[in-house]
Specification:
Strand order of the largest sheet: 1-2-5-6-7-8-9-15
Radius of gyration: 34 Å
Distance between the termini: 106 Å
Number of strands: 23
Mean pLDDT: 85
Largest sheet: 8 strands, parallel, barrel
Low-confidence stretches: 1-12, 53-93
Helix content: 25-40%
């Protein structure tokens, strides 16, 4: 008799895990054995590590110091092995604040500040000046003001904003009227305090650098009044001085403000002769005097980041940034070297007009040598002055910690691209002169002092450079023709322009230039843009 058929839903008589080939059993057995072997190996290694590890000092009843003596604290070591956690915390707590001075005229300063804002602790934008006659605090034409303020607002929890106020007291200048009496002092102090409060700034920094000796007493009286008023308003006071100013010699110099920024470089004036901007010997002698007079918790050393170019036949030297210098070297030749006596970089060459250029430069190499002479307990901050086309190595030094580690010179050998676009000339027409390039330099250091004493640029760093042209006199118009060249119309247009001797600007399309290269060539040959 045949077995009855299974009905739908009737269970099979076979077990759920029925496995006639035993494949599941083999797989499960192999997997279990592997797991057991791995577990045995892991626990064996773990117990061996525990047995061989040494306990940290102080865990067996011995006293354990939470901090090292100052003489034993190692410098930051971002270029090599990371410091121990406790040492790193000490260094972070004592690391001087990084200040960035952004000139009102420099859009490059905005780009560079944005790129390095993680390193910066205090922004010093040059936004205001004091009118000599009225004492009014007026805005400087700073095109980057709103964008730079946005950068600050996004980092406000960590970054302070102390705008610079230009006072304009230079040797030989007439003393401004507002500095002559206590009554006028009070009026300017009230205006400054109101400005800080209305714009919700963290404070204000007045630039009294290069003030003559006969103005010192008046400046002291004014500065003390401003400090007191800003303190009452819960804001910070700040002064900018030069390292050789007579004001530093005043008995109350250390009391003048909450923060004293000292420019540790020379600023050559008219009819000056080519010379180092911050010779190492001069810097060290001035620094020694400075440190004996001002309190460490208030002192900020401003290191220069610019060059000066003495051109034959011109009475005044020209200001240059680092990438202006490298561009000039790339175009005209010459070699950037370190002067053995001053340890400042220098270069000389002749341009296409036969004029001789003698350039002295403050770059990452001079910054390294200057920072090498400082220690944590001597100052409260470092300022980059100005932030505008700075040698990128300066930021590498400051981001690595302070003072600079022994490995810093090797880290300065590679020069990163510029953070900004460099513009030359004037006019609405833009032409790419050269692309951005990184650089490479080989450094020579003194075995005893660790100072950089020589450099050889294997590759010159260059910023992306745009040439501006097409400046026109007043009451002029520019004829423009778009989307050409056209075989039907452009030759006829060129004929008419040639007949009347009128230049024009042609905005062409690449694909059409490929179709009619001879017309594009004619546009150029006949003097059109």
């Amino acid at each position: 008799m045949k077995s009855p058929k299974k009905t739908v839903g009737e269970r099979s008589a076979k077990p759920v895990f029925y496995d006639p080939t035993s494949r599941r059993l083999v797989f499960f057995t192999v997997f279990s054995l592997m797991f057991v072997v791995l577990a045995v190996v892991w626990f064996s290694l773990f117990f061996v590590h525990l047995y061989r590890s040494e306990l940290p000092p102080g865990t067996a009843g011995e006293p354990h110091a939470t901090t090292q003596p100052p003489s034993e604290v190692s410098p930051p070591n971002s270029f090599g092995t990371p410091p121990e956690p406790e040492t790193a915390r000490q260094e972070d707590a004592r690391k001087p604040e990084v200040h960035a001075f952004i000139p009102y005229w420099s859009m490059a300063g905005l780009a560079e500040t944005r790129a390095n804002i993680d390193i910066v602790d205090v922004l010093l934008p040059e936004w205001f000046s004091v009118d000599g006659a009225s004492g009014d605090i007026v805005d400087l034409p700073a095109n980057h003001r709103e964008k730079l303020k946005d950068v600050w607002l996004r980092n406000r929890e960590r970054v302070s904003l102390l705008p610079i106020v230009r006072v304009g007291l230079n040797e030989g200048d007439k003393r401004p009227d507002w500095l002559n009496s206590a009554t006028q002092h009070s009026a300017v102090v009230a205006k400054a305090t109101s400005l800080v409060t209305k714009q919700e700034l963290d404070g204000l920094c007045l630039d009294f650098s290069r003030a003559p000796a006969n103005d010192v007493d008046a400046i002291v009286a004014f500065s003390l009044a401003l400090r007191d008023e800003l303190t009452r308003a819960g804001q910070e006071s700040c002064l900018v001085l030069s390292i050789h100013d007579p004001l530093i010699e005043h008995p109350r110099a250390a009391e003048l403000a909450d923060r004293l920024i000292v420019l540790a470089f020379r600023e050559p004036g008219p009819l000056s002769i080519p010379s180092p901007l911050a010779g190492q010997g001069w810097y060290e002698q001035r620094l020694s005097v400075l440190l004996s007079k001002l309190l460490a918790e208030k002192l900020v050393i401003a290191i220069g980041s610019f060059g000066m170019d003495w051109v034959s036949g011109q009475p005044n030297p020209e200001y240059l940034n680092f990438f202006d210098v490298t561009e000039a070297v790339a175009l005209h030749g010459g070699e950037i070297d370190v002067d053995r006596e001053s340890l400042n970089s220098a270069v000389s060459f002749r341009d296409d007009q036969g004029r001789r250029h003698q350039i002295w430069l403050l770059d990452a190499l001079s910054a390294h040598n200057q920072l090498k002479q400082l220690s944590f307990d001597q100052i409260s901050g470092i300022a980059v002055w100005p932030v505008s086309g700075v040698d990128p190595g300066v930021w590498d030094l400051l981001s690595a910690g302070f003072p600079t580690p022994t490995a810093a010179p090797s880290a300065l050998q590679h020069v990163r691209q510029a953070f900004h676009v460099r513009y030359t000339g004037k006019g609405p027409l833009l032409t790419v002169q050269n692309a951005a390039q990184t650089g490479q330099r080989l450094l020579e250091t003194d075995s005893q002092s660790g100072l950089i004493t020589g450099v050889n640029y294997v590759a010159i760093p260059r910023a992306l450079t745009i040439t501006q042209s097409g400046t026109l006199p007043e009451n002029s118009v520019v004829l423009t023709f778009d989307d050409g060249p056209s075989r039907a119309y452009t030759p006829r247009i060129l004929d008419i322009l040639k007949q009347y001797q009128v230049p024009a600007v042609f905005f062409v399309v690449g694909s059409r230039v490929q179709l009619s290269p001879e017309i594009a060539q004619r546009i150029v040959e006949e003097g059109h843009e």
